[in-house]
Amino acid sequence: xxxxxxxxxxxxxxxxxxxxxxxxxxxxxxxxxxxxxxxxxxxxxxxxxxxxxxxxxxxxxxxxxxxxxxxxxxxxxxxxxxxxxxxxxxxxxxxxxxxxxxxxxxxxxxxxxxxxxxxxxxxxxxxxxxxxxxxxxxxxxxxxxxxxxxxxxxxxxxxxxxxxxxxxxxxxxxxxxxxxxxxxxxxxxxxxxxxx
Length: 196
What we know:
With 196 residues, the chain is mainly α. It is 56% helix and 4% strand.
């Protein structure tokens, strides 16, 4: 929630028509994509149960690539609507999120996942896309560290021997390398981006 709140506070100075750092999207599409996150979270919280999780944090992050076309269409459609209100969406989600048991399983577009793991993936989204705005929103330090560690987990699933190389980078630099926003050091180049 801290990262979402940080983005909300920065929005008054974001020019929505400006091209973002996310290829093909303006700041408006980035915001529309972010706005969907608390809306979906509320829908997924309604599915909370004690059923076993089938999707891990790292698998969820790695799996976003398969949803790229759907995500792009959704962001573009949302950007065309005048009613996109990230501040209201996050405010609506806050009470339900604060009351939620992090140990439950929720059913997402990729399948059942522990709520705690799903929230870590939303933290990654908020940090990465906050930095996609032009001008970038410097992430909350706690959210940045959660995002960096989550992306390390994805790398560990694919190339565990390269984890020390990733950990040697500053967290913000690693996040940008891991998501293809920055050129990778030579040793990591063959394994990144781990998500887009």
